[in-house]
Design brief:
This protein has 63 residues and is α+β, with helices and mostly antiparallel strands. It contains 2 helices and 3 strands, in the order βαβαβ. The chain is globular and about 40 Å long.
């Protein structure tokens, strides 16, 4: 598992007033407030959650 990629995901916009599914994706990523960052594994499920709410997030690749 030395080759596992991770992504740093940061919430840059508020989730209030957004679609419930988009709010759920942000919460599922572990983000709680604007400016909060988490590092998550780069999997297809995580990528799908990021793609759904991409207009609320900033994503950086961490190796």
């Amino acid at each position: 598992m030395a080759d596992t990629k991770t992504l740093k995901v940061t919430l840059v916009k508020s989730i209030s007033g957004r679609l419930k599914a988009h709010q759920a994706c942000v919460r599922g990523l572990g983000l709680r407030r604007i400016g909060h960052s988490v590092e998550v594994a780069d999997t297809s499920a995580i990528r799908g959650m990021i793609n759904k709410a991409n207009y609320l997030l900033k994503v950086e690749e961490v190796s």
